[in-house]
Structures are given as C-alpha cells and as structure tokens.
Amino acid sequence: MPKYKIRDLLASRESLPDVEVNGWVRTKREGKEVTFLEINDGTCLANLQAVFSGEALNLEELKNANTGTAVGVKGRLQPSQGQGQKWELVSDGLFIHGLSEPDYPLQKKRHSDEFLRQIAHLRPRTNKYGAIMRLRSQMAWAVHDFFRSRDFFYVQTPIITGSDCEGGGSVFRVTTLPEGQDAPITEDFFGRWAGLTVSGQLEAELMAMALSRVYTFGPTFRAENSNTARHAAEFWMIEPEAAFFDLHDNMGLAEDMVRFLVDYALKNCLQDLELFDRFVEKGLLERLEKLRSGAYHRLPYVEAVDLLMKSQEDFEIKPFQGCDLASEHEKFLCQSLGGPVTVHDYPKGIKPFYMRLSDDRTTVAAMDVLVPKVGELIGGSQREERLDLLKARLAEQGLSEADYWWYLDIRRWGSAPHSGFGLGFDRFLMLLTGVNNIRDVIPFPRTPKNLEF
Ligand code: 4AD
Ligand code: MG
Q1: Residue 443 pairs with which residues in a beta bridge?
Q2: SS3 for 107?
Q3: Residue 168: pLDDT above 90?
Q4: Do the beta carbons of residue 20 and residue 3 sit within 8 Å?
Q5: What is the distance between the alpha carbons of residues 148 and 142, in angstroms, rounded to a whole number?
Q6: N or C, fewer C-beta in 10 Å, the chain?
Q7: What angle do CA 327, 442, 126 make, to 5 degrees?
Q8: Looking at ligand 1, which atom is closest to the CA of residue 438?
Q9: What are the CA-CA distances from residue 358 to residues 260, 345, 382 (Å)?
C-alpha cells in the first residue's frame, strides 16, 4: 500500500482506494456514530480528516489516539461529506507509532509565543511554527536558485576561524584548554587563539579572487550581549562576493535578491504566507507584494541623517552627522520613504577596516539595506583593494598586519575591485512572515542566558 504525504492527498484530483498516511493527531472528535481524527504530517498547513465509523469505531487503537499521538492510518480517500475540506480518509485501519501522554502541552487553543519558546522542541507541531520551518527550507532553496541563476559558485567558508572579520570583539572563543587552569595558549588545540566565525566574508573574498563570483550560506556567531528582538547569538547569513563589482553593482544585486526571494515565496509558499497574513500581520501579503514590485530607494548616508535630523520624530537616540543608525532611525527612514532604503557611503569611523575609502578619504563605500518592520537586513560594501590604503586602515583601527597577512597578500598579487554583502537569513524570515521576534523564526534560538538544547 503506497505511503502518501498529506500535501499530495489534499491536492489529489481523484478518489484513491488504498491509502496509508502517517502523522500526528492534532485533534480527535468522538461521537456515537463517527469519530474524526485530524492528522498533520508537516508537509503542509492543512490537516487530513480521518473518519472512523461502523466497524472501524471499534478499533482498539482509536481509543488511545489522543492529541499528539503518532499514527498511521489506512483507508480510502474520497470527497468529504462534511464542510471545510475537500477530501477525507474513510479509515479502516489505525496503527499507533507512539502514544501521547495526557499532559501533551499543545492543546487546541492559541498558545503565546513566550510559552511556545519554552517548548521549542514541540512548537514545530503548531500551525504557525510548522509554517515558519517550511518557509525556512523553501527560502534556503530559493537562495541557491538565485545565485545559480547569476553564475555564483557556492563556497563553504570555515566556522572555526583565527580572525575577527567585523572587529567588534564579539567573537565566541573556541578552546579545548581545561577549565580553571592557566595553560598557555600554545597548548590550546590550534596552538593559538581561535573563535567561531562572525562572517565568512574575508574567506569569500579570497575565493572571489579566483572564481569571480561566489557566495557562502552558513551559520555565524556573535557574542553580542544585545537582548533585542532582532539579534541572535547564532544566525545564518548569506554572503555573496563578486570580483569586478562596484558598490552600485552590489546594491543592484542586493535589491534583486530580495525581490527574487519575495517573489519565490509568493509563488511557492502562499498557503503558509496566508496564515501569517491572517494571524500575525494583517496586510502582510500586500506588504510583500510591494517588496516584490514596488520601488527600492537609495540614499547617501549624509542625506539620510539630514532627513532624520529635520524630522519631527522624537527619537530616543538623537541623530547627528557621523552617528551610527539606530533601529528607530532605520524604521523611520523606511516608513517615510515607504519601502526599502539602501543607505550608502558612510563615514569611515563607524565602519570596519575592509571597506573601500572614498577619494576624499572621509567616507567608505558601504551600503546597508533597510527594510520596513526589520530595519537593517543587509550590510555590505565595496572592499578596499589597494594594499597601501588597506594597511593604513588596519593601523587606524589598531589591528595587526600579521594577523591578516593572507588578506593583504590578495592585494599584492592580482588585486581587483570587488564587492559583497551579508543578508541575515533569520531577519529575512521576519520580514517575510511579519514575526516580530527573531527567536520565533529560528528552530532553536540562542540568545544571552538561553541555551536549552
Ligand atoms: O552588517 P553585518 O555585521 O555585516 C557583515 O558581517 C559583513 N561582513 C557582511 C558582508 O559584507 N559579507 O551583518 C550582515 C547582516 C545584517 O545586516 C543582519 O541582517 C545580520 O547579518 N545580522 C544578524 N542577524 C541576527 N542576529 C545578529 N546578531 C546579527 N548580526 C547581523
Ligand atoms: Mg551591519
């Protein structure tokens, strides 16, 4: 007997005589004449209704198939007699893979996100979190699709690293030295300092200087003690790097990528998105439609700050020329321009060493893509390809040339203009779903003082 996925059964064009499906009981409705099991196997949002009547009502297993039970059901798929679903499974066999104890915490009511965060091992079995996890998977495929269509090679950059790309000092240390002992670093596993990567950019740059266009897509780690709704200690980042790209090419690539991903989601994940539109953010689909086909703005940093300073808005952090943009500033800019805004050409003092200096030596060729709801989604730049200027920037920021010898080497032998950016995958999912807290788009979020699994 063929095993079916519920998604395929619900999309069936015809009745099917012999069907087996496996999944988890979402609800059970018992009656004298008939008992219904709503079964979900995670392949789609909707449940399959399994109907038990006549002799099937006497199945011993049916008594035990309460909410949460893992079951296998056999029967025939036929048009539903009832309202609300097109198909139902008229069942004559039931198998219990695993019972569910009566204190199963997911009952048929709306649970708060806070509560569900405490049971992250079970929340993918709810409608909302199941949909988020399916979207994550679909979007990961879409990312690869996008870059393949643009002739970018997928490269794997290391997770354990000896350098701090962003220079923010928020690197998790990797060590095998015994706790509480003062062993010299030379006795550590690598014989030197090592940490978890904060970005694959520097290594991606090296690869771009050989393959022209590359991208990484992997986990990144930041030990920032910022307990906000959009920072996680472990998050996934997509980082393209392209030789012979200037900042304008880079901005174009970033905008195209966001449009492509939103388009992909609207075309391939509509059922899940509709759930978010109904229960998470009213008007989400309209907002996404705008992201797909509406305008993207570009604004030099100086003009962006000007706009902020002239606004009547009562910012908690007062904006001034030279300031870092706070999240409230980012949101204001998107709101007042009515869509995504790429702010570019930042003062060099607030950006990392690797960004390309402008001719007047005061700004760098940086770009941040800010989007409604989320704020900064993408950070990137044209890289400094000139050896002498790069060395000067390292010195300015108190970084040692010796630590970056390989990065400098690339500027000695066939250096070329190149650019890239990092798109926070988890923030992108917030944008796509309307979910306000990054903890709720990550299967097992890691944030300060929070590591359950
Ligand atoms: O702006 P960031 O720090 O840029 C870089 O790391 C560059 N090296 C990327 C590059 O040019 N290849 O980070 C890029 C993006 C941010 O815009 C944000 O979306 C996301 O990564 N991000 C975070 N997402 C979740 N939690 C955090 N703590 C994040 N920090 C950055
Ligand atoms: Mg940034």
Answers
A1: none
A2: coil
A3: no
A4: yes
A5: 10
A6: C
A7: 120
A8: 25
A9: 31, 8, 10
Q: Give the model's pLDDT for residue 270.
A: 97
pLDDT at 82: 85
N-term to C-term CA, the chain: 38
Residue with tokens 């993207």: 296
Pick the ligand that lies closest to the CA of residue 446: 1
Domains of the chain in start order, with CATH, are: 3-98 (2.40.50.140), 123-440 (3.30.930.10)
- Tens digit of each residue's pLDDT (9 = 90 or more) over 313-347: 999 999 999 999 999 999 999 999 999 999 999 99
Pocket of ligand 1 (CB under 6 A): 165-166, 199, 201, 222, 224, 231-232, 235, 237, 239, 376-380, 420-422, 424, 426-427, 438
Q: What is the b/e burial string over 367-392, where b = at least 16 CB atoms within 10 angstroms of the residue's CB?
A: bbbbbbbbbbbbbbbbbbbeeeebbe
Distance CA 376, CA 340 (A): 10
Q: How far is the C-alpha of 310 from the C-alpha of 324, rounded, in Å?
A: 17
**Minimum-distance ligand to the CA of 224?**
1
Of 151, 94, 142, the closest CA to residue 425 belongs to 142
Nearest Cα neighbor of 392 from 346, 353, 358, 363 is 353
Token pair 């066939």: residue: 414
